[in-house]
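G., the chain you wanted modeled:
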Amino acid sequence: MKYDVIVIGSGPGGYISAIRAAQLGKKVAIIEKYSTLGGTCLNVGCIPSKALLDSSHHYYDAVHHFEEHGISVEKPSFDFGKMVARKANVVETTTGGIKYLMDKNNIEVFEGLGSFEDATHVKVSKNDGSSEVIEGTNIIIATGSKPSTLPFISIDKERVITSTEALKLKEVPKHLLVIGGGVIGLELGSVYKRLGANVTVIEYAPTITPTMDKDVSKELTKVLKKQGMKFNANHGVTSVERNGEEVIVKATNKKGEEVTFTGDYCLVSVGRRPYTDGLALEKAGVKVTERGMVEVNDLLQTNVSNIYAIGDVVRGAMLAHKAEEEGVVVAEYLAGQKPHIDYNLIPGIVYTWPEVAAVGKTEQELKDSGVEYKAGKFSMRALGRSRASGDTDGFVKVLADKNTDEILGVHMVGARVADLIMEAAVAMEYRASAEDLARICHGHPTYSEAVKEAAKAAWDGKPLNA
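Predicted structure as tokens:
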């Protein structure tokens, strides 16, 4: 049982690296501890959350926006059980597609916990208690991440929950407390707010989405407040206690005062941690950092030359598409090619409504690094397409080098910007200037015209529709 490449973990990074290695002529095996392929993203992350976001968005539109479009319906209602069942069906179809791709590419799938015996042998411990050892010339660690918590919080998975449990609740909370104003907390908070829950977000940093551009955080806060979400920034949580069907969260605000929040569910959304439990990395001699991440070089190679690591288990943003790109890079490198990845051009996206998307440097990062830059900003409200659809919140901001006009960062809030951001990523991949983007003819009426106008605002300060 010897393979050219063994991949441990079948999430977006793992299964993509396995496919690419197989396409390039390698004999590949993939090990997955769970009964379905796809990892966190497909099973309890990206895909199920987007299914619930879309379902709740349709309901919210029916309640709040159909009338203004001249559509009359009886008082809208929803069947939460059906929403969850639809989500499960989407997950099942998607994970089944990964199994099809494994078969198509002649990749052997092993179900069980993968752990190192040494640098070239991996033990697969199966659910029935049996095990077997397989050998790999090269091994790729793609075991992903798990939700983090705070040391004093006890996750009971019933009332004090992580994102995993939030995706399979039996009821809509009356009052959902969300600890953490990052991507996951805001997305799942949006789902339940649209369905009628009160949602209170408690964030330690001064703003929500603290790693994103400040203008983005400010706009998103304003829009979500308008939708009814409540925000408490600069609040450090000190305790979380459950009392029957009630959860009490205590926090300290920036004045040092204790504040108490009470709800029936508490979503702990304070980030994720690299998941290496059970891998027995010490048997292979693989080093990890103090934060539990697998140490890698620029080729994603560990200190053991034939072992690589990708995705959430290594440094960088914990994003499915980042893991995919790293998986391709490793597979192509093992096949003798010369791949590359530009971490500056990996987009970040928040699937609230309006959506948020960004690529490149934030304005604060440019200021901190002393780069001379210019900024162009254009409001979605000024677009004919936005007014026609009723999605007028948000903006596009383009940051460009003051001297060369090269685009350095693009930040968006608005309808469908999760898809729109790739226009900016392509432009930046080819080191386009703001003028380049401004001179490209954009279809009318489209949301993409905001990109053209913001680029023109950055280039010469004279957008045409503002």
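The CA atoms of residues 142 and 310 lie 5 Å apart.

Shout if anything looks off.
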